[in-house]
């Protein structure tokens, strides 16, 4: 443990912020509701909250999205532009006879049309599902089948490569909208259809419990699940965006996540727009120089990214960041994977700003555990439960669930009464029901709460290793390994062993300038032994070019393990990098 990083100023803006524990104690849901407008007769529509009402309130000229194209183009889309474009899109859907609740899938890169399609669908009262454009034909098809897709919005290239071959076999799919001015046979070109549509569309009178979004989980532990979220989720997006990411009107905010992953929608579309920020959208994938330049040139104030990106930056060394001006940046935040303490310390040094880890899941729809602005950061800890969120550490047994105390390792559980919680897993009622026991939602992650209320991630229940009587979380071992100067990333699994039960095997990606030699392997093992003790240190280290990761940047330990044991690989539809 690296101790606590104290925030002398009491926050990230140099002004005194309310004590976070006090904020938690005094929180009521009225505070979240106060951030919303609402529709007559108890209606609630995410698109109205995120876009139209800001225009109504006189902020139409404010930039909602600053879009950075791959090739250097830059487009500013104001709230008024976004209102008009989403209205046109909603009118296109309406003209095609689509009805409330119909399912619309988006398959494209991070182009402005993606944001228009997502919000236009919600405005029309239909249900939106964003998919990663890099998915292959099979993962796309499976997800569209699970979601009973009625409409697909995509590009001509993606359509020809990934959809055309099997489209005839999906009878639910009524309409394919193609971005641009022309479309292949059987599809509709979106450009002319939008141009011919009315510029006004009153947001559908959806109710808080009406479905709005389907998000598929990352598939890290197995077959992805389709989590259904409702319009009421916007209440939680609004307030959690305020508290955890300090999204206030006018803030320049950049979330690097693709909307194909829940983070890219909850905090890459809804939370920022509801809070009327100006958000940066970068079409390109990670590129060290581009990212540093974007942070600097756009004067990004709040940056939400993933640990994998920070590890890539660390790997490139401090020098790349040296001459940069990050003075606008107030803090960084990340989600999706454990944030290694080393990464917190590194970014404190390089950016000179605090780094806030936060924990949540596709299922929870929003940030559950976080470091709030005025809260001291304990590197390696996820922070504390958000205002309005009741969390606990529990143990399951045949008799039910019992709550454990401070310092105990157990399953991270939540009292499921916040607005953005999933309402079901599509077509998987039994799997959904299994998540709830004795009034708790069980996350499948193991964690520990310290005596001051900070939560520490231990590992996914599936990834836990039992070695010589010790319970070992891969995170702890991986974090120790990346402290070694040669190690950029590490993925750790347990492999069966006659005497120890399991022994630890590590897969390691090296920093540039280091060669994969037996001597280096021994040196890294020696370092791990010193840090962790012989029982917990890896018995074997294998060097790889990259670790197998999901598109949302998570290490797929189950795949390393399946290969090690010669077992079937299981669902690998979300697999991205994977080079030995
Ligand atoms: P699947 O459920 O399909 O196996 P997944 O759990 O990776 O995939 P997501 O919902 O995208 O799908 O990810 C949520 C999980 O990511 C959490 O359950 C947790 O294991 C991990 N996670 C998220 N944030 C953090 C964090 N700050 N620290 C540690 N782990 C995190
Ligand atoms: Mg999960």
From TrEMBL:
The record's keywords, sorted A to Z, are:
Acetylation, ATP-binding, Ligase, Nucleotide-binding
Any keyword Zinc? no
Locate the AMP-dependent synthetase/ligase domain: which residues? 57-426
The entry's cellular-component GO terms read: cytosol
* Top EC category: ligase
In this chain, the stretch annotated as Disordered covers 1-21
Q: Does the keyword Flavoprotein apply?
A: no
The protein's GO terms of the molecular function aspect are: acetate-CoA ligase activity; ATP binding
Q: What protein name is recorded for this chain?
A: acetate--CoA ligase
Q: Which InterPro entries match?
A: AMP-bd_C (IPR025110), AMP-bd_C_sf (IPR045851), AMP-binding_CS (IPR020845), AMP-dep_synth/lig_dom (IPR000873), ANL_N_sf (IPR042099)
Annotated TM spans: none
Species, as recorded: Aliiruegeria haliotis
The chain positions of domain AMP-binding enzyme C-terminal read: 476-554
Listed GO biological process terms: acetyl-CoA biosynthetic process
Its Enzyme Commission number(s) read: 6.2.1.1
Q: Where is the composition biased (Basic and acidic residues)?
A: 1-10
